[in-house]
Amino acid sequence: MSGGSDEVVRFWERLGLPGLIDVHTHFMPEQVLRKVWAYFDSAGPLTGMEWPIAYRHDEDERLALLRSFGVRRFTSMLYPHKAGMAAWLNGWAADFARRVPDCLHTATFFPEEGVERYVREAVEAGARIFKSHLQVGAYDANDPLLEPVWGLLAEAAVPVVMHCGSGPAPGKYTGPEPVGRLLARHPRLRLVVAHMGMPEYAEFLALAEAYPEVRLDTTMAFTDFSEELTPFPVAERGRLADLGDRILLGTDFPNIPYPYVHQLHALERLELGDDWLRAVCYGNAHAMFDRR
To answer: In whole angstroms, what is the distance from residue 262 CA to residue 8 CA?
Structure first.
């Protein structure tokens, strides 16, 4: 197998799983993805470091790789960096989900006029998960234009993966405080904190403890790459175990600077047990998306 697929398969077979569910993978229009890759190549201000893309392949090859890894369900995380993009991205993502049935239909939004309308249209069209990127979009989750969107998504129980932590570089609206204000108004919102909220790990774990519908994804957390920059506090490992039913596997494929299997090995070396790994790598997401 190419791309280290055999190692990935051995990982989930050892756990007795049917495969993996990865809630944080990126598929987007080709011209947008090329611009994202160019940004990583240039060590832009939101990364500020060398960031080689491990899986810089065309769309068909990236899909084939995920399937060879045994990823049964994945997402097409995409996001606007300005007004006027989100509805177009949602149209592309809806078509992608039709073409790629193992992809969870993903959508996004931006605080702008008309946002409630196109988010409602996406939900009615079958969107299963949304992406909100407070760092790249440079918007406040508490922007009044988004208030009806949060209510709509909470009522529909559609999860939102939100990049709200201040890593790899802080944004004007990142951090736990604005997210805490959002959740105080919408406690039933199914918020998935991307990247375990790095580097504010403890604060976002506390929000998950306070709000039963809050989850966290593992994207890039615990890997050698992230541990060198923003290590996860050893003292917080017990909270990881306690919240084991609300942590979801995410990887950032294809935009990662190491092999896919390294994310899995990084979770394994936390030594939280096979039951924890089974829940994080498959069971928790299966319960959210595939059980009726």
So the answer is: 9
